[in-house]
Amino acid sequence: VVQKMIRTAFGNNNVDTCARVCHSPTGYGLNQTLGTSAGTQTFDSVMDADVILVIGANPTDAHPVFASRMKQRLRQGAKLIVIDPRAIDLVKTPHVQADYHLPLLPGNNVAVINAFAHVIVSEGLEDTGYVAERCDDQAYGAWREFILEAKNSPEAIEKYCGVPAADLRAAARLYATGGRKDGKSAIFYGLGITEHSQGSTAVMALANLAMLTGNIGFSGVGLNPLRGQNNVQGSCDMGSFPHEFPGYRPVGDDKVRASFEADWGLQLDSEPGHRIPAMFDAAVAGTYRGMYIQGEDVAQSDPNTRHVEAALKNLDCLIVQDLFLNETARFAHVFFPGTSFLEKDGTFTNAERRISMVNKAVEPLAGLDEWEITCRLSRAMGYGMSYDSSSEIMDEIARLTPTFANVSFDKIRAEGSVQWPCNAAAPDGTLIMHVGGFVRGKGNFVITEFVPTTEKVTRKFPLILTTGRILSQYNVGAQTRRTDNNIWHDQDVLEIHSTDAEDRGIRDGDWINIQSRMGDTTLRAMISERMQPGVIYTTFHMPGSGANVVTTDNADWATDCPEYKVTAVEVRLTNHRSDWQEEFNHFSEDTRHIAE
């Protein structure tokens, strides 16, 4: 409904979603290689996996329900490879232990994945029959020539990736063989893959790896993005992008656009709109006069906080619609109430393409559902948009989106859930994608040249900061900070290896200042052997912590997904908070209430 209002009432395609800052490279990379912007499996598929490769993800903290399922399979005997700069929970616990942990330095995902492929091809471990039958010969030939170059060998990348060549070779062999004859290997990845300047390249490199070994198209295998929120897949499916209508169809396609124009009753813009970073740039420049932000706290979640705040301050009209008066709401001229999952009927679509019902338990406290507020705003701006129910909205989605053609509230309620594509070709939905063939036809091997990030360590900034989440808080914490979860995590801390701490005279619990070329913030130190020397880590759940005051505006080359995982910094002992944190702490009680 929001993307429809932007395209009709606003008259442009300047609509974007929080996927821009998390899994937009997933959509791009999987579409380029396989033909659709979604994961290939069900979560239950992990129970058939013989080898599980977890790269750039921490399921225990970020996806705990799925992590329990994965650990069940590991306790049954599946092998585990973890590729992560930190020794995350899965590396070693009393219950599960990784067979291989490859502690790469942040920014080197593509090099490591390419080295996996180099080992597999050079040692003849690829599935030649699968590749010949299901993949494009010309694309594979060019890629094979590239991947066999010496620069992609484990020995060549060891010196700058931090991964011993022998360990990488052994892990690659394990993935390629599934640990046994006819073994099945599955890849699970998260924001540690996508939130890089080569995020899209890394996703395509993983797709190359899965196709190379024949690990797509049946249970126990596949490419499984662990997405950041319960409905972020759904927001992408519904065209919340400046270049795509619902169903991932280009706004520049005349035939596609004509179908929406006929249904919506007006001519639509054929030019793609702005992505979120370009929107902020335009607001700072004064060419954007207004924004409508629904369910996203950009003032806390997006990188280079000072630039984001400058953009929001420069708007003539900022409308924020949310459950809570969050950080972004401090800049709002108009605030509309959001509705929780308990107050509305609708659907959520998760990372396995599963469309599930959301059933209203209580009436909205504000009296209106979110979509009703959006429709009223649209009518006030001159485009008459109205529905009798959320079920009617789903009927419109099915009418205009081929992959959803057979989806309805009645069907979802009858089945319990439905996985798209669900249409005439798959009337009951699709559990596993790419069975017997890829959506795009032949699988497309893409040459994934490793290009080092421009964010380099220097004498001034000798450490690399990477950021992530923790189990007890959720994203920017707008919901979980209002609960007793604060008992477990009431402040963001900086994890630092003992060697780096000793070099700087830092002890556990000290206040330390973190400085980058973007800005600085101050956090408590936590000495942690989970880190490796030269790499530090923090979370971003508390508004007064300011992790994104420090992060840069570097971004993925294809999608503009921010490079949260690589920021060059220095840390030092201090006895006070940063200047901006002091200002934050001196808010009036009313303003503090809004911020917290």
Concise account of the structure shown:
By secondary structure, the chain is an alpha/beta fold. It is globular. The mean pLDDT is 94.
Going by CATH, the architecture of the largest domain would be 3-Layer(aba) Sandwich
Mean pLDDT: 94
- Alpha-carbon Rg, integer: 24 Å
CATH-assigned fold name of the largest domain: Rossmann fold
Number of domains: 3
Tell me the overall shape.
globular
How would the blueprint of this fold be written?
Elements: H1 2-10, H2 24-33, E1 51-55, H3 59-62, H4 64-75, E2 79-83, E3 100-102, H5 109-122, H6 128-134, H7 137-147, H8 154-161, H9 165-177, E4 185-189, H10 191-194, H11 199-212, E5 223-225, H12 232-237, E6 244-245, E7 249-250, H13 254-264, H14 276-285, E8 290-294, H15 298-301, H16 305-313, E9 317-322, E10 334-337, E11 346-349, E12 354-358, H17 370-380, H18 390-400, H19 409-415, E13 418-419, E14 463-468, E15 493-496, H20 498-503, E16 511-515, E17 520-527, E18 535-539, H21 547-550, E19 567-573, H22 579-585, H23 589-595
Parallel strand pairs: 1-2, 1-4, 2-3, 4-5, 8-9, 9-10, 14-18, 15-17
Antiparallel strand pairs: 6-7, 11-12, 12-13, 14-19, 15-18, 16-17, 16-19
Helix pairs in contact: 1-17, 2-11, 5-9, 5-11, 8-9, 14-16
